[in-house]
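Researcher: I'd like a structural prediction for the single chain below. Treat it as a standalone chain; there are no partners to consider.
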Amino acid sequence: MRSQPLVLTALLCGFAACASPTTPSAEADVGTADAVADAAVAPASYPVGVLALQTTGALQRTLPITVWYPAAPGGTGDLATYYAGLLPSPSGAQMNVPPAQGPFPLVVFSHGHQSVRDQSFFLTEALAAHGYVVIAPDHAGNTLLDFDPTLFDLNTMTFGAMFLYRPIDITATIDRILQPQPGDPPWLTGLVDPQRIGMTGHSFGAWTTLAVAGALVSPVSGLPDCATATADPICQAIVALKLGAPPWNLGDSRVKVAIPLAHCFGVHFTPASLHSLKTPMLLQAATGDGTCNYQKEALPMEAALGSPHALLSIHGGTHVSFSNLCDLPPGMASEIATLCAPNVTPLQAVTHPVIARYTLAAFDVYLRGKAADPMDFFSGDLANLPFDIVDAAFGQ
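Model: Treating it as a single chain, here is the predicted structure.
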């Protein structure tokens, strides 16, 4: 692979992080991250508005929803907060302010296992500030606040009913934003262009992204005998959703481009469907991910995909590099404290701007019709940044 042209260093420094791919110590990396945090980013086109909605997902579950959108200048509203009010919006996003003139492309975000819909607000806010409506549901029964282990137990790693719920939740979420209801702000009508829809998600949400993009689901473990285990949640879901025998197509053809972030459970997709998939993909992953292993998940998926795709890899990093979990107070994030330690590099001040930049660039190609910049999508290292990219006809 060739190295990225040095001219891109200046371009990336205007949007994201300019750091060495390797750092001699944690102290040096902290210094680099501080410098990156102070660096200018690509000018946002819009202030960010935030709206709370809800919808009904698979098996009539109530799904809280957050919508981020490009706001009109001069709006006044309450400051948006995330993680149940623990973290304020870093960009000054405001609740319920009037939107800018649409329609805008839509991006759907799916959170990770036992996480929450606003887990990656660094990304959802960045997309909204650059002219996208972003909508994210809580997958009820699989969040930090309402986890139901009968629907999927990460300890056993077997297939669970939540695998079937999640893609249906996403279709319901898209329907909700496209079909405003009585009591919604009148400006919600026409805010989204229904012909320009993309999706992204993290971890289990990245698996959900792949399923919604059309990869056929075929469980390799944990599927009960539904002739006798009629009360099993998986069997109940199969019946209620009228799925029949696997493999199952849980896709939504309205999604034109997909960006899975650190996906897990790729084994539950049929190899043939991955090879025949048409939806363009920008996979993103971290080589230091100890949860969704890079060697077992990212690399085989990149090799299996038949659609135009690319793989953006962080050198090092962890599973939470694609979220804002490390911004939580230390006591609140005790289970992930080791993933957020100062000696874990690169820090999110380095990774977040690059993740946002490439996610935006990918959506711009397929949802706005922009030509793919050859300095973005190619095969090689990102100059002076702890990333590399493998391009397989993405944007062509």
